[in-house]
Amino acid sequence: MRIMKSVFLLAALAAAHAQAPVFEVAAIKPSDTAGTISIRRSGYRIATTSTSLLFLITWAYDVQSDRLYGKPNWLDSVRYDVTANAAQDNRPAPLRQPGQPTELQQMMQALLAERFKLVIHRETRQLPRYALVVAKGGAKIRLTEAPDVMGQTPFTMPGRGRLMGTQVSAEMLAKVLSDQLNRSVQDQTGLKGVFDFKLEWEPDVLSAPPDSVPAPADLRTGSSLFTAIQEQLGLKLEARKGPVEVLVIDHIERVPTEN
Q1: Counting CB atoms within 10 angstroms of each CB, which of 68, 87, 98, 130 has the fewest?
Q2: Which run of H or of E encompasses 179?
Q3: Are 11 and 38 found together in one domain?
Q4: Are residues 195 and 224 in the same domain?
């Protein structure tokens, strides 16, 4: 689910316009309890099944769940099917401005505010986080110039403990790692351009930092995600604490207004 969310987020690269766009048509209904989570996107049309408001908010505002405060206890448990679309005659630019939401994200923000009465504000708090840096010995990736149009599916996860990226930036990798670790990861590599990579780790030791007490050799079948990033990519995750911008939910309603 975390990788799916990141792929969905990173696939929607577009420039933000001065006036926030909105979906022309949107339908929201409670999900079938037996339904499976799915996301389909084509142009300015989004169709999701069994997605929570937590997922939709974190995607729309480009924020990890650990940086979202004031969450009601049902935010990740109540699921909805969402179908929304807008006109195709004003397509977004291929790349968005750094730090700016895409048009599609702005549309979802407006939809959440209109239908679920979502009200939020931003704060800065001192929080634990990770910094993605270049490890001693240098990065083990081959950088190339970023293309004019980014791919629709830059990340794939062919199995547990396996992650592949095609023409991704260090910033994009940091976002995916944030979802895997459930903690903010900030790109501080200074690397420019894009790269392809394959990453393999032992899922059961996903969050074991390199300086933690290792499991006995007969119980350890692979590297933790932290170790894999350093050994296979020449990058490193460093635990730090510092100012992090967070979102605080002031108000949200569980039941959306009628379609």
Answers
A1: 98
A2: helix 170-181
A3: yes
A4: yes
Q: What is the pLDDT of residue 43?
A: 75
Two tokens at 112?
């959440």
pTM score, two decimals?
A: 0.65
117: left (phi over 0), alpha (psi -120 to 50) or beta: left
* Radius of gyration of the chain measured on its C-alpha atoms: 19
Q: Which domain holds residue 172?
A: 125-243
For residue 51, being part of any structural domain is answered with yes
Domain assignment present for 259: no
CA distance 33 to 28: 15
Q: Are residues 119 and 140 in the same domain?
A: no
Q: Is residue 26 part of a domain?
A: yes
115 and 137, same domain (yes or no) = no
Give the helix/strand (H/E) hosting 233.
Answer: helix 225-233
- With respect to residue 27, please indicate whether it lies within any of the assigned structural domains: yes
Per the structure, the count of domains in the chain is 2
Mean pLDDT of the region 92-106: 62
Based on the fold, state whether residues 75 and 97 are members of the same structural domain: yes
Query: What is the per-residue pLDDT across 106-150, written as a single tens digit (0 to 9) for each?
Result: 899 999 999 999 999 999 999 999 999 999 999 999 999 988 766
> Are residues 159 and 88 part of one domain?
no
* Residues 3-54 pLDDT 10s: 555 544 444 433 333 456 789 889 999 998 777 888 887 778 899 999 999 9
Tell me the average pLDDT of the chain.
82
Count helices and strands in the chain by DSSP H and E runs: 5, 11
Instruction: Provide the strand spans (E) within the chain.
Output: 25-30, 38-42, 45-52, 68-69, 79-85, 119-134, 155-159, 162-168, 185-187, 195-200, 235-251
Q: Coil, strand, or helix at residue 176?
A: helix
Which residues, in sequence order, are CB contacts of 40 under 8 Å at separation 6+?
Answer: 46, 47, 48
